Amino acid sequence: MVTKAKPPQPSTERVFQLSLWRPFNTPLHRVGLAGLYMSLNYLQPWKGNVIDWDLTPESIILRWKCTDREALTWLLNHTYQLHDSIQGLIKIPALGEISTDTAVTIHNGILSTFLQHPSSVGGEGIKKCTLQFDENQTMEVDYKAINRYNHQDLNPFAKTGLYDKQDYFLPYIRIAQWLIPGATEKHVAVAGGKTRLQESPEGFLSLLFAPIGCSYYQVRSRLKANKYRWGLIIPNINNLEEFAKIRQTEGFQVANYCCHSLEK
Length: 264
Prior knowledge:
Layout: E1 14-19, H1 27-42, E2 51-56, E3 59-64, H2 68-79, E4 81-82, E5 90-91, H3 100-112, E6 121-132, E7 138-149, H4 155-158, E8 173-174, H5 188-191, E9 198-199, H6 201-208, H7 210-213, E10 215-220, E11 228-233, H8 240-247, H9 250-253, H10 258-261
Antiparallel strand pairs: 1-3, 2-3, 4-5, 6-7, 8-9, 10-11
Helix pairs in contact: 1-6, 1-8
């Protein structure tokens, strides 16, 4: 009887080295690396359960002995969540204890930048949330409630080319708009895939955590006061440890809706 040969397996331990100064890194890659640094800091009590890591001010080393799919699923499940008490609101534990108004701002900002394409989320309609600024001042704001989003659930994206048949990363991973806002493949029918954006697994891992390090703000239209767009702030990062401390301070997190309410 002829035994069918098994496909070659990766080494027992998978190791990924991510650096701020990796060739071809953009500011968005570096802010994503900072977001991953913050997530791993939050997950310190669970270090070594599925993933192990080493953190320095300029780099991150990730290690695991399971498949890439298992490791990344565990990491994303603990990083990107939905709020328990506010229906359909994005929750990112690595940001620490943040106020409701800041949470709504981050939620609306992420949905209007990284996750602006309808296929990036599963929606539950527009909901209202009451913000309490002090004993006498409250404000009601709208937000789009969701039941899933790509950063939390990679299964829809994985179908387009993320893992091989053994659930390990492909050598090159397709980059979509929810990873880099505005990134699109041009002239698909003519180019035959030659204009497709791709990243290494290390670059892909960095981009996955960019929403955590970015900030979001509303840009009001000068012509129509009730219309606005969302702006994305990408910090310039050269020290992961210092940025993580600053990102979690109240002054950096604060959101202000009062100026918008006065114009209604």
